[in-house]
Every structure is written in structure tokens, then in C-alpha cells.
Amino acid sequence: MRVDVVTIFPAFFDVLEVSLLGKARGAGLLDVRVHDLRDYTTDRHRTVDDTPYGGGAGMVMKPEPWGLALDAIVADADAGDRPTFIFPSPAGERFSQGTARELSEASHLVFGCGRYEGIDERVFAYAATLGDVRLMSLGDYVLNGGEVASMAMIEAIGRLIPGVVGNPESLVEESHEDGLLEYPSYTKPASWRGHEVPDVLLSGHHGRVAEWRHAQRVERTRERRPDLLPGDLEA
Ligand code: 6GU
């Protein structure tokens, strides 16, 4: 998968070099390229923002540098390639494990990281002439810009690309894959600082272990995330 990121803070993405996704890049499964939006400005001050039409607080990101940056990315991609453009925004649709799965099948994603009060709305309309456009929110809170949100989405999507996570079975029983939270995990020692591993896990009885884990998943989902439960498991 090819991933381009447009940002005024490229250094945020240095961390992609390390850990799982760093390995995926090394193995050629993930080709991430980070672009500095200021490289696409044309004035001496490398200006990326201006005051909002209609008045109001804050600054808006100017469309021209975005247009040039998106053009450069598309010009550098394979002929006929129509990327999916993702603009992180608290005003976007909610990003979920389902969205991550869907986007992990794409061949080319472009993340556009906004700062200030946002990006001139016409940038989204222009991007829609080049490919699909998704405004995506991580949740109901506000971050300073799209960088941290893009990192989270790149990690959630990247780990679903075949070969990135070594054992694909470890992806199956995770929270949010089937609508229930994950069961609790334990390792040695069986007794630690007065806290015991549940007996059933030491029993060697696979059927009872599976039953216990399922019950734990339902119970913690009911306690912590009742909004995830289908009607017949609620209350
Ligand atoms: Cl995707 N962006 C920003 N700026 N804030 C957010 C967010 C995204 N998701 C939740 N808060």
C-alpha cells in the first residue's frame, strides 16, 4: 500500500520508522511518504493560512498549497490511480475498525492533515475530482490538528495489511473485530503480589476456557461499552 501524508509538521511522522509499521515499511508492504505542505507555497513567507471569509476566530488553511500538493502526489502515482483522500476532522464521519478494514484494501491513501480552524472547504471538492474523499473523526473530542489522528489511522489500517502482523490469528479475537471487547489475558507467575490467575485458565480444559473467555467478553462489554451490545445481550 502507498500512503502519502501532507502536513506542516512532517516530524510528527518520524515515529513511523519504529516498531511494527517500521518493519512493514522495511519489508515493502507499506510505502509511506510524508510531504511538507510549505514546500507547495509560492510566497517568500511560505504562508499556509489566512483569515476566514465571513469573520470569526482563528485561521483557515489556504487552498492553493493544498491544490499543488495533491497534484504532485497524483502526478507521482501510477497512471490511472485514484487515491482515497482522508482528511482527519472532528467534523468527519466516525473512524472504526470497520473503516480500518475497508481502507486496508485500498492501494493508495492520502492523508491531509489540517491545522488551525480547518482547511478551505473547496480543497475537499477538488480532491473529489482526483479520487474518493473521506473526512474522518477518531471520536468526540478535539485535537489540535490531523497529525496525531492520521498516525492512529495509519497504524489501525497498516496492521491489517496481510503480512504486517506476524500471526494473523492475533487479529481475530481483538476488541472491535466482532463487536465484543477482548477477554482478559494472564501470563506467569500464577500468583503475583496476592493476585491470582483465574483457576479455569490453569485447568487445561479448552472448552471451559473458551466458555469463560466468552462470558468475560460479554460482561466487560456490558460494563464498559454497553453501546456495543446487540439488544438481546443488554441489561
Ligand atoms: Cl480526526 N482531528 C482532530 N483535529 N480532532 C479530532 C479528530 C480528528 N478526531 C477526534 N478529534
Automatic annotation (TrEMBL):
What keywords appear on the UniProt entry? Cytoplasm, Methyltransferase, S-adenosyl-L-methionine, Transferase, tRNA processing
Q: What class of enzyme is it?
A: transferase
Residues that hold S-adenosyl-L-methionine according to the record: 114, 138-143
For the biological process aspect of GO, one term held by this record is: methylation
The record's GO molecular-function terms, alphabetically, read: tRNA (guanine(37)-N1)-methyltransferase activity
Principal place of residence: cytoplasm
- Per the record's keyword annotation, is S-adenosyl-L-methionine included, yes or no? yes
Q: Does the keyword Nuclease apply?
A: no
Q: Which residue numbers delimit the tRNA methyltransferase TRMD/TRM10-type domain?
A: 1-229
Which Enzyme Commission numbers does its entry carry? Answer: 2.1.1.228
The reaction(s) annotated as catalysed by this protein in its Swiss-Prot or TrEMBL entry are: guanosine(37) in tRNA + S-adenosyl-L-methionine = N(1)-methylguanosine(37) in tRNA + S-adenosyl-L-homocysteine + H(+)
SUPFAM superfamilies linked: alpha/beta knot
Q: Where in the cell is it found?
A: Cytoplasm
Q: How does it assemble?
A: Homodimer.
Family, according to the entry, reads as follows: Belongs to the RNA methyltransferase TrmD family.
What's the stated role of this polypeptide? Specifically methylates guanosine-37 in various tRNAs.
Q: What is this protein called?
A: tRNA (guanine-N(1)-)-methyltransferase
- Recorded source organism is Microbacterium plantarum
Mind giving the lineage of the organism this protein is from?
A: Bacteria, Bacillati, Actinomycetota, Actinomycetes, Micrococcales
